[in-house]
Specification:
Radius of gyration: 20 Å
Distance between the termini: 57 Å
Largest sheet: 5 strands, mixed
CATH architecture: Sandwich
CATH topology: Immunoglobulin-like
Shape: flat
Structural class: mainly beta
Length: 177
């Protein structure tokens, strides 16, 4: 009898995501493990991207686009949220020679660049260093114009740090009329 109850509770806890519907788009890569995953695989580490540059080890980049399906008749600007998280146990310094931290490209499905975020923003020669402490994150909330998008096609939003080309993330989205 106890085994049936435990089995029922286990199935119920695993089916938690079936009953609810998310209104916001989910982040691109999953970085936090659930309690069940930690119990079943206690010694497997969190997934942390590996970069060739040793200064960037432990950083994870996440991109969220709002709305996920772009209605061109209603939306003139696409909201882009980029989160850079330090998952390591040491602080990571990032040096920038200008005031530009990120670059955003809107690409068509063939990979051609339609819009650049930096074309509409002033960039000054102002060097700076950003220190990301362990388990902290930096968020960049920006918008980019949708004027070059055409309906009923898939487009790609690509965000990267010009000073650190390895820190790059892409996400596809659909444009409808």
């Amino acid at each position: 009898m106890k085994r049936r109850i435990v089995l029922f509770l286990l199935i119920l806890s695993m089916a938690d995501g079936i009953f609810g519907q998310e209104t916001a788009p989910a982040p691109t890569p999953a970085r936090r493990r659930g309690w069940l995953s930690r119990i079943l695989h206690p010694f497997s580490p969190e997934v942390v991207p590996q970069y060739k540059d040793p200064r960037l080890r432990g950083l994870a980049l996440d991109l969220q686009i709002t709305p996920q399906t772009v209605k061109l008749s209603e939306v003139r600007q696409l909201a882009i949220k980029v989160t850079l998280t330090n998952l390591s146990k040491r602080p990571v310094p990032l040096d920038f020679p200008t005031s530009q931290r990120i670059e955003i490209y809107l690409r068509n499905s063939a990979g051609n660049i339609l819009t650049k975020w930096s074309d509409n923003h002033a960039i000054a020669e102002k060097p700076a260093t950003i220190l990301i402490n362990p388990q902290e994150r930096i968020e960049y909330n920006e918008t980019i114009s949708t004027r070059d998008l055409t309906p009923n096609k898939v487009f790609i939003a690509e965000v990267f740090f010009p000073q650190y080309p390895e820190l790059r993330v892409r996400q596809k989205f659909l444009a409808v009329p």
